[in-house]
Amino acid sequence: MSTQTDKDFINSVDIDVGGTFTDLVLTLDGERHIAKCPTTPHDLSIGFLNAIEAGGDKVGLTVEELLPKIDIIRYSTTVALNRLLQRQGPRIGLLTTEGHEDAILIGRGAQWTDGQRVAERRNIAVQNKPHPLIDRSLILGVRERVDSAGQVVRPLDEEDVRRKLRSLMDRGARAIVVSLLWSFMNPVHERRVREIIREEYKEYHIGFVPVVLSSSVVSKIGEYERTMTAVLDAYLQRSMQNDIGATWDKLRDKGYRGAFLMIHNSGGSADIFKTPASRTFNGGPVAGLMGSAYFANKLGFKNVIAGDVGGTSFDVALVVESSVRNYTFRPVIDKWMVNVTMMQTISVGAGGGSIASVEGGRLSVGPRSAGSMPGPVCYDLGGTEPTVTDADVVLGYINPDSYYGGRMPLSKSKAEKAIREKVAQPLGIETIEAAALIRRVVDENMAGAIKREVHMRGYHPEDFVLFAFGGAGPTHMSGLRGDVPKAVMFPAAPVFCAMGSSIMDIVHMYEQSRRMVFMEPLSERLVVDPQAFNSTVEALIEKAQADLVAEGLDVADAQYTLELDMLYGGQVNLKRASSPRLRIDGPEDAQAIYDAFEREFSESFSPLVVNKPGGVFLDNFVLRVTVPTWKPEVPEFPLQGADPAAAQIGERRAYWPETSAWADTPVYQFEQLQPGNRVVGPAVIEAELTTIVVPPGQRFDIDKHGLGILEAINPPPPRKRVTSQVAVAA
């Protein structure tokens, strides 16, 4: 595979499979086309091909005519998490170092809170540790030992391995995880165990089983997290193989011969058949974050909140000072802490399909979702519980006749009935008031999530711009933006995560734990061993180049960047800092690396906690390898007049909580609005795949790039900033 062609563009298909809709961005001959179709949870490959067919319809091509023209397909999905939540994995056997069989069952001290919402954590009386993915009877220890320096102190007992392996198979294991102590320092025993498994159960045997080595999945310290990462990969491997394999087979049958990449939660993409399952978790929101960073840079925004309102969840991520280098080092996937470095995003159960319910006289919206089947009540597919989308229909914001481009007529009467019976009557209010309350609650949930995330990172919402995307993002951006002064809506907002993947480079990340003293305590001398430092980086580069060659990529196109996990002595605040050098060839290189660490540490924590007398320790190397791909430019258009009358397509009665009244509200067609047009609320703007709601007191402008900008007509005065000298206006 090569990303270089004789064209000045790349034809690509980018698909994001969500809980409700499957989104597509088709880039063909330098032009973009978007499409959506319902997700098919029973067989994701069906929805995948349906999305490509919908994209082909946009350009007048059948799937068989379109696919041979495509150079690359990128795919993000939540299939791994869905299978995990449904506990549909095989019985797994675990071989670990003798004496450490109970490590993953013991977990960390707070394991019982992993993956729990705040409200659930507070109810301590009902909390229990999660039910293990592996039965204790399927965890066996083998006789071996490697120490923390990678030295073999107890040779591997191969006969013991064979006995334990046969015992696991007799007990029903259908996948084997091998996680031995300190194997990331020296994987010789894990690799030999895999060879023994292959000798005992060959590929042509019915008893052939997948084998996952923890040292291959994660080369980092942390026995529990490293083992759980390998367990999750083994648990999800077969189901993902079936889903993705079926998709790949259908693509090949239809004539596709290009590359097939999976979006990683580390911010890049890689060959789909060389992607561990744990790297795909949260791939869609990460694609949205990377797309936000790219367009923010092009548009001149330094601080951006990426807000993705889908059918099931609301995902939030930040671009700060044009950087997305905010990581979660030990994320929790479902109930399990893993050792996979992920771009930092948060997710709350709020979206168009979020279910509204009344318990104890109190309305809650989410986290339960109606999904795509049966979906909201207005879909008329068997749903009985009212959702946010039902409320938007009842309020008059969503047109039942033009939803999803008119291909999915909605039932307003059934939505009204469900809200009346399930919300209005239990609360003793009118149906329209109940619908408005549902919308207000979900908006406040999302605005609260933004405020918490921004403030907990040490920033102020007033200093950011909101990129509102996802199918329901433009519909709710007026309420969810909270204290953020400006919200931006892209024409491709309904499929923005797929849009984000279309501009993502091919990126691999390689990590290696290796503890080194970088700065000597007390003396503050830089004493890092250049040979050890350079050999570690060189080994990572060699591994990266081998993978690039195997994927058919040109090694000469690769760009290498190094990040280092470092901390001051006597502290627990580890900081991942960007290294300005790949090698240390002299004192000036070591000084440059330390200076970069101190600067980023000070920005993240405070200059007051810089502790040079405590020394500096290097814990982990992270090599990021990037192969750039073609990216489109952001177009500019001449500005027209402010009057949007030419785009008005009618009026519709809508209820506005701001005035507590119905109003005959002008309705505009988004695609007919011109740069320079200004729509003053109250108004509704209909696009092919979403609806923009402009409440009273707000305005919606089309800028020179064709983007929609939502702001208050009379914004509040600027926040006062407190400096070390005086308070000045922002």
From TrEMBL:
A Pfam family annotated for this UniProt entry: Hydant_A_C
Residues in Hydantoinase/oxoprolinase N-terminal domain copies: 13-200
Record domain Hydantoinase A/oxoprolinase: where: 226-507
Positions of the Acetophenone carboxylase-like C-terminal domain: 532-707
InterPro entries tied to this protein: ACX-like_C, Hydant_A_N, Hydantoinase_A, Oxoprolinase-like
The protein's name in its UniProt record: 5-oxoprolinase
Species: Hydrogenophaga electricum
